[in-house]
Write a structure and sequence with these properties.
It holds the Pfam family PPK2. This protein is α/β, with parallel strands linked by helices and 293 residues long. 43% of the residues lie in helices and 11% in strands. The chain is globular.
């Protein structure tokens, strides 16, 4: 099945989130969509095997999005066919006491993938320039020098923190980690409907928290800070992709296709060749094994 162009979702110039649709214009009926997704997932699993054998690149997939944007189900469905030893998912919650004794990137750094492997960050280091901008009091938990109250946070604090994140990602890329970042772009109305479904369907009640409604009240602030973070940190080494998220199934198709297309650009990824001496003796080894009793 032919792959489609996903560059339209890559952020290569400043964007305005309110001007980007939360529903895709891609035409794909349900059966074609399902078949395409399965075939691409299989190709990705094969590519993962090759990358594991090649052992020169690591892949870091970063996923951000508002509550109910579908991060968990997307990860479950997209990476289902991956070899379990080759992918690790990290879901970053509120920093614990140990993590707060280090700088804000430390807990992300120690979760980075080994060469030949994938790591998926479900919520990422960008929480440190998103949630902490909406709730500035969280910064006080980091016990930073010179910051004893919210009023002490300098105006350029978040700009500098974004610079540190860009430097961090450049460092990773320059040392063989392929960094791909995804913002699942959900509409406020679709979030409302999904929250209602969590309340209406008993089996999904456990997913609901009153805190979801509290955070929903900061919707405009989050959109502004996401937009700023994406515009300041979408680089050649670590690009952002804004994926329409109102249709979960199409979101998964676009997300998976984007990863496949980006990794396919690395023409040097291939299975390692046998040493000449081993190649020369393949028939000898085959005969030896065939004659075993």
């Amino acid at each position: 099945m032919k792959h489609f162009d996903t560059d339209r979702f890559k952020v290569t110039q400043p964007i305005s989130l309110k001007d980007i649709p939360t529903k895709t214009s891609l035409e794909m009926d349900e059966e074609v969509q399902k078949k395409h997704f399965k075939e691409t997932r299989k190709k990705m699993a094969e590519l993962q095997d090759m990358m594991y054998a090649h052992n020169k690149y690591a892949v870091l997939i970063c996923i951000q999005g508002m509550d109910t944007s579908g991060k968990d189900s997307l990860i479950r469905e997209v990476f289902k066919e991956f070899n379990a030893r080759g992918v690790v998912v990290h879901s970053f919650k509120t920093p614990n006491s140990t993590e707060l004794e280090h700088d804000f990137l430390w807990r992300h750094y120690i979760a980075l993938p080994e060469k030949g492997k994938f790591a998926v960050f479900n919520r990422t280091h960008y929480e440190n320039v998103l949630v902490t901008r909406v709730h500035k009091e969280y910064i006080l938990n980091e016990n930073l020098p010179g910051i004893n109250s919210v009023e002490d946070i300098p105006e350029d604090f978040y700009g500098k923190r974004l610079e540190q994140i860009v430097n961090f990602e450049n460092h990773l890329a320059q040392n063989g980690t392929i960094v791909l970042k995804f913002f699942l772009h959900l509409s406020k109305e679709e979030q409302r409907q999904r929250l209602l479904r969590r309340l209406d369907k008993e089996k999904h009640n456990w997913k609901f928290s009153p805190g979801d409604l509290k955070e929903r009240g900061f919707w405009n602030d989050y959109q502004q800070f996401y937009e700023e973070a994406i515009n300041k940190s979408s680089t050649k080494n670590a690009p952002w992709f804004v994926i329409p998220a109102d249709d979960k199934k199409m979101t998964r198709v676009i997300f998976l296709e984007t990863i496949f297309n980006e990794l396919s650009k690395y023409q040097d990824i291939k299975f390692p060749e046998l040493e000449d001496k081993v190649k020369e003796n393949i028939n000898l080894y085959r005969t030896e094994l065939s004659n075993e009793k």
